[in-house]
Amino acid sequence: MINLIAAITYYPKSDQFIIAVNGQLPHESPEDMARFTKLTSGGVVIMGRKTYETLGQALPDRTNIILSRDPMFHLSNARVARNLEEALKIAPKYSSDIWIIGGGQVYKEALEKDIPDRLYISEMRGHWEDDSEILSQGEGVLLFTAVEVRHPVQDQVVTFPRVNWEYYKALYIDQCDDHTLKILSKTSLNVL
After folding, report:
1. Cα–Cα–Cα angle for 151, 56, 52, nearest 5°?
2. Is residue 134 in some structural domain?
3. Mean pLDDT per 10-residue run, the chain (192 residues)?
4. For position 146, what pLDDT does the model report?
5. What's the pTM?
6. Are 2 and 119 in contact (CB under 8 A)?
7. Structurally, how many domains does the chain consist of?
8. Are 17 and 115 in contact (CB under 8 A)?
């Protein structure tokens, strides 16, 4: 089964969900990170090169497939695929449990091509404040529940693409302490 897993934070000014700012998550949730680790361990994780570089290492207890168009990009601790299609051909050799874990371009391509069978979406509580709430410490500072994140260049904000919800039905929704977990499926309504 091909799964897509993401943690997203709402930004009302542009009516978008943010997944990263300056290569960092705009939210912290030990509960969500523990769930991510539990779900993806033993499986295959597919990620873009920038996501891999942000992590700084291959994720342990998983087969890591890193996407890079650069023919000179090679890793000793992970598999490298030139595109998502190649990664999806490689992945079943290692596990039937396949996870697309980001970043933004990888999510966008997977959703546009209707690849994931299931979506695991953690909508984090709170949201980014609009420009009227920018701190006086300088331009480019946004607030997220009182945590400052500086991003002088707008393209350093990575957003989660729109989902065509007609393909997915809710399997499970849980209100956690700091986020809402939504698990959606296009192939099955079986209980998890």
Report:
1. 80
2. yes
3. 94 82 83 96 97 95 97 95 98 98 96 95 72 32 35 64 83 90 81 50
4. 30
5. 0.83
6. no
7. 1
8. no
